[in-house]
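Example record

The entry below shows one chain as it appears in the dataset: sequence first, then structure tokens.
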Amino acid sequence: MSSATNGAQPSSPRHVLTIADLTRENVVDIMRVALAMKQSRKVFMDTGYDRFADTLKGCSLLTLFEKPSLRTRVSLEVGMHQLGGQAIFYSISDSPLGIKESIEDTGRVLSRMCQGITARVASRDSVRNLAKVSGIPVINALDDYGHPMQMLADLQTIIEHKGSWEGLKMAFCGDLENNVTYDLMRLAALMGFKLDVAGAGTIEGSVWDEVAQLQAKPGDVRQVQTAAEAVKDAHVIYCDSWMSYGIPKDEEELRKQKFMPFQVTKELLEAADPDYIFMNCLPAARGMEQTAEVIDGPHSVVFDQAENRLHAQKALLVFLLSPLRFSQILSVGELPRRS
């Protein structure tokens, strides 16, 4: 396939700013491709052949970073390389969007040079404003309202370890006023599994509104009062850092005291399903959101979860940057079946 065809964009680009910008069917198809891409890399290690190596040949992805990230930057750059394209890193921490140049001008220029943009930013306004004017797909690589790429990696991990998300209960313990919490709530509602969240902080009303619109069965996504109630009979236990980027040092001790009742411990997990898996999107602090014996224990899948950022993002990039190629991959018939 020519690079021109590979990089062709629809007249109205598809943006992914939260996981709710995808349909359930989209997510299922992305999962099928992600699992196949992960298997193809295993074949590559044995044979030197990866059947997806030219999938995004000729495509360039601009990666805008206002916040630092090891996993996001490495997974995007490695992923584009493995697909035959390139990722271009650009830090906006010292030159915020819309300051030196209007967002409208920035979006129009980038749309003429690249096939896609990812943006890891402090505020949802930055990525939303960029998407409004961009002629190419914009993917939220984390803001204060969502983290859709992490959701795809999380779901892939659940599929690998539990077979499916259907019939599962997830528990999230910790910071409720959090991008990961918000998108986990959307993911549960979209895909139809149960989620109990327990912690400190106030969940924005708009997130609850989205959940109400997305979920087929009301009440599957709930806020409960205690970590013990959330974890009871849960198949998946999830937590995130209490100290997000930008938390002032003088507030850390107060946050620790506020969140400590929701720390995930071995004793707490005695109430979970015996075959539970433990997830944390990393970075993790042992002795904070979870104890060392939990994250380093036999039920922990945090490093599989981290690796799957690479494979799930590759599938999402092909879905957005080259829809025709994505459809061709699905039509081959060598992918995992729909759940």
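Notes for this example: Residues 3-146+308-331 form a domain with the Rossmann fold fold (CATH 3.40.50.1370). Residues 232 and 250 are 34 Å apart (CA to CA).
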